[in-house]
Amino acid sequence: ESDTASEISFQFNRHKKTPSIGSHSSDMASVSSVSGSVLSVYSGDFGSVDAQGTVEFALDYDEKNREFQVHVSQCKDLAVVDEKKGRSDPYVKTYLLPDKARMGKRKTSVKKRTVNPIYNEVLRYKIEKMVLLIQKLNLSVWHNDPLGRNSFLGEIEIDLASWDWSNRKLNWYSLKPRSLSAVNGVDHRGVMSLSIKYVPPGSLGKWPKNPPSGEVHIWVKDVKDLLQLRPSGVDSFVKCYVLPDTSKKSYQKTRVIKRDTNPVFNHTIVYDGFHTEDLKDACVELTVWDHEKLTNHFLGGIRLGLGTGLSYGISVDWMDSTQEEVAFWQEMMLAANEWIEGLLPLRSL
């Protein structure tokens, strides 16, 4: 069924009130920072004030340093968030779309008590020019609320493929309301084909066929329609963790498939150490990455679990499975020893 089969144990203390993290690998550290970055794209209050005003900025690409630069100059006539005090504390935030997570956010300092802030700051991205040209720049303005949710004040989006790079002058742009697709994070990242199976302890007869503890089998088949970061395609691989265990023992990955936006992995992973009750609190995280020498770039992922927001009684942000992912996991829980096939869209995690 597969070209590779690896078996590792699902290990953490089920009796502690805090998840056992263990030693983080450098790869998992990057996953954690990516997750926090993506959450910040959508966190905030989008409806409390109407977008208004303008923002002045300029774009440039430094060929020598391979650096994309956003010179944020100032804003004018922004919306007032605190009507009683007649104030806003604005700052500017940027992302490269559609892959918000891969590059992370950049933001200016906060200017207090003004609707006409002056920044004169440069936000920088280390990125190859050919990769930049398939991105869009999302620049948004926010009111900073240290005690609550930041308020959205407006945004502008620019297609960098059609940008006039000879234009290095500061220009004014009208701020627009947040689009519904941006709020909901609707962007196509590809689709993963996979099968999963749960083998309960004691279900296969006598040892050695009978596992002393339960097993979760994950068969990653293929992915279609990945983001194409280079003209030659993408060099992709899949990482797998069973959360909340983020130790090196939990980490597995497929081989790298080069120059293909429709890679076939055909890779099976087996996690043992499962008890049936663990299935309610665990989450299988599968993420797809573009492989490069210096850094791997996040392309999308899925999380298989019940999506309750809780793991062993602790509130966690990664227990956020979509309806499709939850239904897939539930079907596996109800059909012991049977392969459950699925076709799930990749998303920002």
UniProtKB/TrEMBL annotation:
**Any idea which GO molecular function terms this record carries?**
neurexin family protein binding
Q: Name one GO biological process term.
A: exocytosis
User: Could you name the domain of life of the organism this protein comes from?
Assistant: Eukaryota
Supply the CDD domains for this chain.
C2A_SLP-1_2, C2B_SLP_1-2-3-4
> Record's GO cellular component, any one?
plasma membrane
Q: Provide this UniProt record's keywords sorted from A to Z.
A: Cell membrane, Exocytosis, Membrane, Repeat
Q: What InterPro entries does the record point to?
A: C2_dom (IPR000008), C2_domain_sf (IPR035892), SYTL1-5_C2B (IPR043567)
Its principal location?
membrane
Domain C2 stretches: 51-173, 188-319
Could you confirm whether the keyword Cell membrane appears in this record?
Answer: yes
Q: Name one Pfam family in it.
A: C2
Q: Which PROSITE patterns match?
A: C2
Instruction: State its location(s).
Output: Cell membrane
Q: What name does the UniProt record give this protein? A: Synaptotagmin-like protein 2
**Organism, scientific name:** Struthidea cinerea
Gene name per UniProt: Sytl2_0
